[in-house]
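Hi support team,

I've been running sequence recovery on a batch of backbones for a student project. Most finish fine, but this one hangs at about 90% for roughly twenty minutes before it completes. I'm not sure whether the input is malformed or the queue is just slow. I've pasted the structure tokens below so you can try to reproduce it. Let me know if you need the job ID as well.

Thanks,
M.K.
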């Protein structure tokens, strides 16, 4: 996984992905960020696409893998 894929995420995509990855329910994320649940899903779909992930666990794994590679 290349770091540039992570950098392609918009700040909002990163923020939504980070909150969902921490275990916050999508509906709560929507309330916290003042958006609809559909907007949360939209940002997650976009993030998955940019990361080449099919689901949340895969997206989180790719982000963490990329971060570890960047630290080397």
């Amino acid at each position: 996984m290349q770091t540039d894929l992570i950098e392609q995420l918009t700040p909002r995509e990163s923020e939504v992905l980070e909150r969902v990855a921490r275990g916050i329910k999508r509906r709560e994320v929507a309330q916290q960020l003042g958006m609809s649940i559909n907007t949360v899903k939209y940002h997650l779909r976009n993030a998955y696409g940019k990361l080449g992930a099919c689901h949340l666990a895969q997206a989180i794994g790719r982000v963490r893998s990329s971060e570890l590679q960047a630290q080397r």
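--
Follow-up from support: It reproduced on our side and the slowdown came from queue contention, not your input. Helices lie at 3-7, 11-21, 26-33, 37-51, 56-71. No action needed from you.
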